[in-house]
Amino acid sequence: MLTSLPVEIAVQDVAGVRLALQAGAARVEVCQALGLGGLTPAAGLIEAAVDAARQAGAASFVHVLVRPRGGGFVYDADEAAQVERDIRWCVRLGADGVVVGALDEAGGLDHERLARWVDAAGGLDVTVHRAVDAAADPVAAVVSLHGRGVRRVLTSGGAPDCRAGLAGLAAMRAAVGDELEVMAGGGVRVGDIAALASAGVDAVHLSARRPATRGRGGPGGGADAFDATDAEVVAAAVAAAREADAVRTSHAR
């Protein structure tokens, strides 16, 4: 049973996809390199995530981050073309949505790039990620997405994390009305979910990760530890979202 306040989990492997399915999360954002803010994952991981969701009968579950590199959101023509090609691969592999974002040199959303990527996505859901939080005016950036084929925006309200961005999240939600879903993300902890629900967000996003080890790294292999999805945190987040949504619904009556 899914929570009424959707919980999205950022995952970097198929084990994370399965844990999110088992806990009742609404969807996953499949990515890699969360330490860099997330990058485009391998095609094999996307395909495996789609297979796991289909076997579980979970619709609209697999959303793929398409981001060519870390280090900001202003892209040259080659990088933008790479994003477009990766989006088309996501379509072929059966993903349900893509997560993208780009800024122009002036600090606004790069709508020319975004339009090409929305077109490449075809009928898939498009989420614009936290590039909006790096914009010169985050609220205006979110409002500018109206009517451009975008389903939702992932944002911390223009702040370093969602706790500092509660006022910004509420302002974004009020500004876009029913035209766009506002999903809170950026340092989300289970204890933050009630306050985020009170701010009116439509969903919450978190990585729920913990360090894990399996053998040794060493020269050429990087650090010993890697990120793994924490099943207990995912379950607690889903439970907190259900409780927060119940409180919000009762107050609305």
Automatic annotation (TrEMBL):
<keyword id="KW-0963">Cytoplasm</keyword>
<dbReference type="InterPro" id="IPR036822">
    <property type="entry name" value="CutC-like_dom_sf"/>
</dbReference>
<dbReference type="Pfam" id="PF03932">
    <property type="entry name" value="CutC"/>
</dbReference>
<comment type="similarity">
    <text>Belongs to the CutC family.</text>
</comment>
<dbReference type="InterPro" id="IPR005627">
    <property type="entry name" value="CutC-like"/>
</dbReference>
<protein>
    <recommendedName>
        <fullName>PF03932 family protein CutC</fullName>
    </recommendedName>
</protein>
